[in-house]
Request: fold
Amino acid sequence: MKDRKQLSVSAIKDGTVIDHIPAKSLFKVIDILGLDHIEKMMTFGTNLESKKLGLKGIMKLSEVFFAEDDLNRIALVAPDVKVNIIRDYEVVEKRLVEIPEKVEGIVKCVNPVCITNNQEIRTKFELVSRNPVGLKCHYCEKITDANNMVIISSS
Ligand code: CTP
Ligand code: ZN
Reply:
């Protein structure tokens, strides 16, 4: 018998299912992927019970597919997601994400006097440590880490 506590969200025909998103990062993932600009059927679940994560989020994006580089950007806030590519109702590919070596325009520099915080200049970082994440600013060389990471909204 179907578990009555299970959330039923329909399967999708074609698209991308991003699973195991930490609940606190769901809206950041939406921002990073710019989903508010995509007019496709999407369902988001958050604060769902997960044995592994405590609380997790999931998103089902119908007819939406991403380039690997774009998807990898979400690793900054959700390093352990599982990405499922769906074609004709079947999971045809499972992917993991990895923080890119160069990060441009997603994260704010922690340094208040950095030029990127005072002029219209897109931020640019080099990945200097992966776990915990450390990003070195191309302009001021300060390190922005996981604790002070602020995501720049894409909207
Ligand atoms: N899914 C979907 N539509 C489909 C096929 C799958 O929305 N047509 C979703 C499932 O609901 C699930 C995810 O894609 O959230 C992965 O599907 P599947 O690999 O079948 O599930 P699991 O075996 O539970 O995956 P895993 O344990 O690898 O997370
Ligand atoms: Zn800087």
